[in-house]
Amino acid sequence: MAQELLTGKTAIVTGGNSGIGLEAAKVFAERGARIILAVRNEEKGRAACNTILQGQPEAQIEVMKLDLADLSTVHGFAEQFESRFESLDLLINNAGVMTPPLTKTKDGFELQFGSNHLGHFALTGLLLPLLLKKPDSRVVTVSSLAHKGASIDFDNLDGSKGYKAMKFYGQSKLANLLFALELDKRLKAHGISTKSFACHPGISATNLFKFGKRDAPEFLKGLANRLLQPPVMGAMPTIYAATESTLNGGEYIGPDGKGQRKGFPALDTPHASANNEAASKKLWEVSEELTGVKFDFTGQEQS
């Protein structure tokens, strides 16, 4: 592995207040990056910030408000970031919602598709001009093993024709993967050095595993921590995708163990459903239409 130091670089981590996002942010801070924890709950974000600073008092880290289930705050975040920073080196599309009851975002989208995919799609498009100002900047989008066997039901994206929480979670994670791979194709087609990657954490014991609004019972948390990939290991594919200098863009990174459920980061092969070119293009078009965000690949200042 030839993983880079990040001194002088700026990284945004969505959902960086806990789990995989927090563990990745810790490593980025150790390597010298300036970290923006983009979080819905600013109090939890500040607590995460303090956790990192306790171990790394010299870390450059701050919290900014971002609710991926509300496109107005996605726009607000991008505008605020652009007013303070001239460029962006690293965008980690990490935040996720897993298997809630049928819920709608503020803009009327099904929560998992709206937050996990559409929110990140819009955020990436809005920040793209700043990413294009940095040669070899990177976008890393966190997918899941749940994408396997999933499909995008374009006729029922809002769940109005039936809703199964796990099915819609798989759909949102397939959308993450399709988006990451399609973004890299479009960047390359425009001769842009910015790279897009997809990754997944295997099966990781994070706070996605909740019971409604309640935390899981302590004995289940203990069982999960023994059987599942701990967040510090679950974050390794994200860190690898963000920093490994030998990657070309368009790779899918996951754990190297049996079934890609646990282990150290390595190249993985997406399910065949992620190779559907027609679905990728349609998803891109639908996402632009639903979010009102169009990607501009023409304004690059890369060298």
Automatic annotation (TrEMBL):
The keyword Oxidoreductase applies. The keyword Manganese does not apply. Coiled coil: none annotated. CDD domains: retinol-DH_like_SDR_c_like. Keywords: Oxidoreductase. GO terms for molecular function: oxidoreductase activity. This is NAD(P)-dependent dehydrogenase (Short-subunit alcohol dehydrogenase family). The lineage of its organism: Bacteria, Bacillati, Bacillota, Bacilli, Bacillales.
